[in-house]
């Protein structure tokens, strides 16, 4: 689960990390109060969306200005006008895709004198099953770009969970970032603070970019992105309260309400599969046969008829879907349950695109019999390769 920058900074502030003063604005009429509260003389107006690259982004609407979802202004009336212009407009960045995202919240922050910009992040390293730190002197840039062009400027290390973070970890980061004196001491403390917060909040990513050294020699978290492990949110109602459903894909949001693992993609063949590994294999073989998957959808091992019906409805709600492949290997999941769910969904929403069904495993003959007697125009497949070939051929004509 993602949260907005201003929410991430509130969490940082609650742990004692250095962040600047700022005020979120959700309604245009509150802009003047926010700007006045900060007092100036410099304000930074930031569009709040769940995507990076805001500063280089472009608004679709001309009245919001062509460039930048992050603006530095030095006049009170200009700051107010900027907030009013951004709210409700669509910001397009390299992470949003061409559709962009509508700005429903704006963060007005006090300006800061910047001497240096640095990069610092924590994430879960899947290879080592540990929390890893990434630090670089090249703050303000995409870390992928730094890694490609100047990898020697990136420090990466993982923390042994048996010991947790230690002072030497902080000293290692401070040295890599070229920090001395007060800033180095603050860095050592910050590393410990971030690690504790990461563990206690079940985060999956904390990215501070840039982490700045101010003109008076102090560290300040100028921007922050936080992601959380969705599987651990039941332990964190305070994090769940920060969820902004308007930032989420409608189909993915609907799927989450039925405990379906769904991710929307850009292809043309909708997939309904049980098991993440089989779902990945299904997407791969669709590409192998010359098409693209429209989604990742794992209905899980214990799916009910109702869940299968909802999954099918979510797939058919995607206007890009030109064909559907149902690929079920019945272990815990029963093929007859899948068959009943598909039939119920088709009867409810209709079937306007080709449908290929491949069933194997528990109650497979019963499942096939249910589909054969349904009267639906379903293309049967004997195996995964056969299923992929048939659905691609049906879609491509």
TrEMBL record:
Pathway annotation: Carbohydrate metabolism; tricarboxylic acid cycle; succinate from succinyl-CoA (ligase route): step 1/1
Protein name: Succinate--CoA ligase [ADP-forming] subunit beta
Residues that hold ATP according to the record: 46, 53-55, 109, 112, 117
Species: Paralimibaculum aggregatum
EC number: 6.2.1.5
Subunit structure: Heterotetramer of two alpha and two beta subunits.
PANTHER family: SUCCINATE--COA LIGASE [GDP-FORMING] SUBUNIT BETA, MITOCHONDRIAL, SUCCINYL-COA SYNTHETASE BETA CHAIN
Cofactor(s) the protein needs: Mg(2+)
PROSITE patterns with a match to the protein in the record: ATP_GRASP
Cofactor binding annotation: Binds 1 Mg(2+) ion per subunit.
ATP-grasp domain span: 9-241
Similarity comment: family membership: Belongs to the succinate/malate CoA ligase beta subunit family.
Gene3D superfamilies to which the protein is assigned, alphabetical: ATP-grasp fold, A domain, ATP-grasp fold, B domain, Succinyl-CoA synthetase domains
Binding site residues for Mg(2+): 209, 223
Reactions that this protein is recorded to catalyse: succinate + ATP + CoA = succinyl-CoA + ADP + phosphate; GTP + succinate + CoA = succinyl-CoA + GDP + phosphate
Gene field: sucC
Domain of life: Bacteria
Enzyme class: ligase
A Gene Ontology molecular function term of the record: ligase activity
UniProt keyword list: ATP-binding, Ligase, Magnesium, Metal-binding, Nucleotide-binding, Tricarboxylic acid cycle
Function description: Succinyl-CoA synthetase functions in the citric acid cycle (TCA), coupling the hydrolysis of succinyl-CoA to the synthesis of either ATP or GTP and thus represents the only step of substrate-level phosphorylation in the TCA. The beta subunit provides nucleotide specificity of the enzyme and binds the substrate succinate, while the binding sites for coenzyme A and phosphate are found in the alpha subunit.
């Amino acid at each position: 689960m993602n949260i907005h920058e201003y929410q991430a900074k509130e969490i940082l502030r609650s742990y004692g990390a250095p962040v600047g003063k700022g005020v979120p604005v959700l309604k245009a009429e509150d802009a003047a109060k926010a700007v006045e509260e900060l007092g100036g003389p410099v304000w930074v107006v930031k569009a709040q969306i769940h995507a990076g690259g805001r500063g280089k982004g472009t608004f679709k609407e001309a009245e919001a200005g062509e460039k930048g979802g992050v603006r530095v202004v030095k006049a009170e009336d200009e700051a107010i006008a900027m907030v009013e212009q951004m709210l409700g407009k669509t910001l397009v960045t390299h992470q949003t895709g061409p559709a962009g995202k509508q700005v429903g919240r704006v963060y007005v922050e006090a300006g800061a004198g910047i001497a240096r910009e640095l990069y610092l992040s924590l994430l879960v390293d899947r290879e080592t099953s540990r929390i890893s730190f990434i630090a670089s002197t090249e703050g303000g840039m995409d870390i992928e770009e730094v890694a490609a062009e100047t990898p020697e400027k990136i420090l990466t290390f993982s923390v042994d969970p048996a010991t947790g973070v230690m002072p030497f970890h902080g000293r290692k980061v401070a040295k890599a970032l070229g920090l001395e004196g007060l800033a180095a001491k603050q860095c050592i403390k910050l590393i410990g603070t971030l690690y504790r917060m990461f563990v206690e909040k079940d985060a999956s990513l904390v990215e501070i970019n840039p982490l700045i050294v101010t003109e008076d020699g102090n560290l300040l978290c100028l921007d922050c992105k936080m992601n959380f492990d969705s599987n651990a949110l039941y332990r964190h109602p305070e994090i769940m309260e920060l969820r902004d459903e308007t930032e989420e894909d409608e189909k993915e949001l609907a799927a989450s309400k039925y405990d379906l693992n769904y991710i929307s993609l850009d292809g043309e063949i909708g997939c309904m599969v049980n098991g993440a590994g089989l779902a990945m294999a299904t997407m791969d073989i669709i590409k192998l046969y010359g098409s693209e998957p429209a989604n990742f959808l794992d209905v899980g091992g214990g799916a009910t008829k109702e869940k299968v019906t909802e999954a099918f409805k979510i797939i058919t709600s995607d206007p890009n879907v030109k064909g559907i492949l149902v690929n079920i290997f019945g272990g815990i999941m029963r093929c007859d349950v899948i068959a009943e769910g598909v039939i119920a969904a088709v009867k409810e929403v209709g079937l306007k695109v080709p449908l290929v069904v491949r069933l194997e495993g528990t109650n497979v003959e019963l499942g096939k019999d249910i589909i054969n007697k349904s009267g639906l125009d379903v293309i049967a497949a004997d195996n995964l390769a056969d299923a992929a070939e048939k659905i691609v051929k049906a879609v491509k004509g």
